[in-house]
Amino acid sequence: MARSAFIGITGKLRLTSLDDMSNFANSAMALSLVYSVVATISSATIEGYGPLPQSMGLAWWTFANPALRLIDSETAHSLSMKALRSLGESRSGQIALNSLYKSPELPIEVFDRLFHHPVGLAAGFDKGAEALLAWPAIGFSWSEYGGITRYPQDGNPKPRMFRANRHRALVNRMGFNNPGASAVRDRLMARKNADKWPKSPVAANIGRSKKVPNEHASDDYAATLDILWDYADMFVMNVSSPNTPGLRELQSDDSLIQILNACNEVRTKKDDSKPILLKLSPDSTDEQISNSIETSMANGIDGFVATNTTIKRPIPNGTSARKAFSNDGGLSGRPLQSRALEVINLAFEETQGDVPIVGVGGIDSSESAWEAVISGASLLQVYSALVFNGPSVVYKIVKGLKGRVKESGFAGISEAVGYKHI
Length: 422
Description:
45% of the residues lie in helices and 13% in strands. It is an alpha/beta fold. It is globular, with a radius of gyration of 20 Å.
């Protein structure tokens, strides 16, 4: 009966055999979503369902997290996205997920937009902007799709995603695999026309097309920005991914000036003041980061994202981690936490708090989130924590932040931003 109810509520997703169900459940997030809906449907009503994210955290560790370890990372990710497109995009699915994962209110105004709380989805999970309605349904207050490039590209050869479970770390060398800016625009145009645009803020992450040389990068970024302009509330210029050859060379002063000037021309043409942010590399020296911030501030940047993934590796604590860390690519997750925090602090000091900072990198608890906030982050993003902790991590982080705000005597979380610098 529960299985039939699940098929009915998902609408588009048809699991008509045990093999189909087994394949679907192979994804960690998918399995968690299956459990969520079955648990909800098994109750008398959605409103009557009692144990919320706490019980779902237990379900994640009991069922979904072990499944995550049994299949390769990219397969798990693909199945998760399939589940989210089907379940999270339907009205009934959104109601079910929201009843389980709805986060507390902890409002903050950033970029002249009101966010229900600071925690958003980092770029890289919803690369093609396929599940935008699912993210607020599982508790995120905003989301970032991409990275998107001007031209479609397949990315780097597979396998290209790896897990180090004991380290709570991911390694990826995806290489901006995406359908291209025009295809994403068409998809988002159809979404808007169908009245399926989320009410929460949406950011677009923009990268350089692999086939475009660095000397033409400014035109490439500007073209993508122009194409996607009507389909995001803010834009992140990604010049710091380690997975596209030569991309990090664009962090030089001359390249940054060219890219930002080209993007500002697009913004002027559109006669709109949507924010443009720069994503910083954790592998740059403090002096290089300071230079990038100074150059960007002088050329109209509206904020910074700290940080991208790192090419550095911790000492592996087992065979699985050793295997994962031996692969090229960017590392995200808990080992990045300390360096990301250093960059947040540095960025806040360099900007003197004049522009917002988005903190990302190893944020997986209310404690690490709070440290990022008092170090200077107005907004936060998670990615690896969603993989290792499950969807309830958003609720837990926001609930913990709300408690810390109250304990510290602040009127709101905006008062805590950069507090350690006072």
